[in-house]
Amino acid sequence: MRQSAEGVDVLPDILGDGGGGGDGSSVVDVFYKTEDGTAKSSSGDYQVKSGKVTFNVGEFQKIISVLVLNDSTPEGVETFKVILTSSTGDTVLYNETTATVSILASDKGTGEFQFASSSLNKTIEEGATVGFT
Question: Which residues of the chain have pLDDT under 70?
Fold first, then answer.
């Protein structure tokens, strides 16, 4: 699982065998997409993205950059996924094909609560119920 603060790029790594595809001499494309979890791209939590990364012969690792947006909405930790969807040539997506990204909130917690100033001090008789707003 990757963690990111609001307003920065998150960079999941993709690892390849470095052989250049099933025959060891071909360029291989790996396709990916983002998917909402509790973080919603439509709500401005992160920038939806899909595309491909190209592994040339001898390359072992690539990075996907996904922009996590900064907002001022009080919220807790939210998540979205980066999913490897397919690859070209004589290749197979293997083992871990989904990365979960946790967005750490940079705003004021998961909500704002306070007492109305008129409710801070109450005087009440024993056996009665006191109310706060």
Answer: 1-24, 107-133
